[in-house]
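Hi all, a correction to my earlier message: I attached the wrong file for 3-methyl-2-oxobutanoate dehydrogenase (2-methylpropanoyl-transferring). Here's the right sequence:
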Amino acid sequence: MELKEKKSTTNTSNKNINIPKKTLEKAYRLMQTAYQMAVTYDENRAVCSKYVHSTSRGHEAIQLAAAFQLQPFDFAAPYYRDESILLGIGMQPYELMLQLMGKKDDPFSGGRTYYGHPSLKREGFPTIPHQSSATGMQAIPATGMAHGLHYLEGQGLLKGNNKPVVVCSLGDGSVTEGEVSEAMQMAVLHKLPIVYLIQDNEWGISATGKEMRAMDAYEFVAGFKGMERMRVDGSDFVGSFEGMKKAFDYVRKNRGPILVHATTPLLGHHTSGVRKEWYRGDFDLNEHQKSDPIPKLRKALKAAGYKEKDIVGLEDDVRAFVQSEYARALNAEDPDPATVENHEFAPTPITEEKGQRKPRGAEKVVMVDAALHAVDDILKQHPEALFYGQDVGGTLGGVFREAATLAQKYGDGRVFNTPIQEAYIVGSTAGMSAVGAKAIVEIQFADYIWPGINQLVEELSKSCYLSQGQFPIQSLIRVPIGAYGGGGPYHSGSVESTLLNIRGIKVVCPSNAADMKGLMKAAFHDPNPVVMLEHKGLYWSKVPGTEEAKTFEPDGEYIVPLGKARVDQYAADEVMENGESCLVITYGMGVYWAKAASKKFEGRVEILDLRTLNPIDWEGVIEAVKRHNKALVLTEEPLQNSFAESLAGRISQECFEILDAPVMTYGALNLPAIALNVDLEKAMLPTAEKVEAQLEKLLNY
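and the right structure:
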């Protein structure tokens, strides 16, 4: 089914216009505002092009038409050219110019991100969570918002009787991104309340539409069963307004997705750094100029009864207003460099260990069941929580049975399977968080996380920092890691060093059942993105030497704050006093290699289990190093350029004067993958015997 919307006819004066005159006047005033802003930026290039920016010239009509449909309870995901959407919802030129110039009072980011990259949480306005440069990446978080609204609505958790809509604005060139297809697939699969607004000006940067695609977005989405679609002339405000109203009304009523394909001219530069005259010929520029939205709406105003002198007066008023706004912004204060570190993370409410780690009458539990029980407790106590990923729903409950029974207990609306879409699994949590849903998601194996890295880096990790704390993203991402005997090259990897190079996320790696349960709950309550690395070889304590990963199960209130290491094994006091001890700093499977290796050196080896890799318990590390003055950092990852080597370097730098030996490191061989054959796997990875040899070297240094 299609919602038919013809392109507007050229003779607006003969058209029956059913839009209030005040709406037409408001649209024209804002079009003129956007135009004068673009003129001002070009006339003052020395100042305004210090930081790269784009304007909405040519796109004003469709953007204002969309903005006028948005209600304060709605959500929007604009792209970098959507300055007129921002003006249309009530943002002032001064506010946008503060961002243009990187000023302190930029309401979106405090001078941290580009012009036209909003983060808005303001009473009476639609919510606009942080987004990256929005060349397709915003489609997944935006669809995640719609997915979150769908979930909350289905659970009766939405306040009031409103029917929120998400609008996701995309340039047509970005629709070729694979992540856009993932988003649209989920939108039709779950019937999500979202409007995909595609603004097609037939240009990428210097590439034309014909170079980039075999079909336009309207034709493309014909393959998504259940996606309504509409074409509009995006240069005609009247037709665009009527089309966008119809689209929003459809989504509010039917709670399903629609795509609006709007053709527009590109009248400005791609950006201030890529100017139109560098790559566009006179013919192309003249053809686009014929579709300028401003003369079209000016004609509509006259058809509605406005006099020429009134229109000219409005234009003069806008010109003076924009000039005064520019002067204010130019003289505004710059950010204080001392604030540069603010808002890396939002403060967590979990700052101390609570509950009983070993309650009376407790039975021992394996790690995989401790995780299952933790998620069960969370779902039971927090109706806003949901859990999804590949194969975690239905009767299987995960390939490791880590979600067994949860779908049966809580229903397919809360615990469900996704397609093979790691990008959507990760990125949708940003949208979920923005609307108040709290997602726990799973990547089936660490080796499959790579398609989701774009979302983790560009959307999740930067949101809190670039929105100045307005939009921290609560996201708990479970990732089974590590070798467990014959898993082969795509089911055995460890990925922590890659993750730890992504600022703005937390990384947790429990080594036993009690920590698994306590850290899982802390990760859920943390308002920031947390990646939970769960070692497959420890899940069931079936790998020889890992029996102690099975612990007494903590009570339902047990919680362990992130960023606190735990001494898993102490050295004897007398040995330490005699300077005959050493420290092993490790995590995950490394704890058990170190335990087994230390049996030869009874009382001489302390094992510090980091538990959380970021934020790291640096004070705990330093205190432990000072107790022994000799340290080995042990990892399962290939050693070269790893987190372990980085940590060892930091210890060497800050503890140099107290060390009695170089800080040693040990890990897997520097190979691109773990072989399938178990003997080859063993040859690559650390073992208790190999670690024992390292300890002997260190203790005898």
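Sorry for the mix-up. The CA atoms of residues 591 and 609 lie 7 Å apart.
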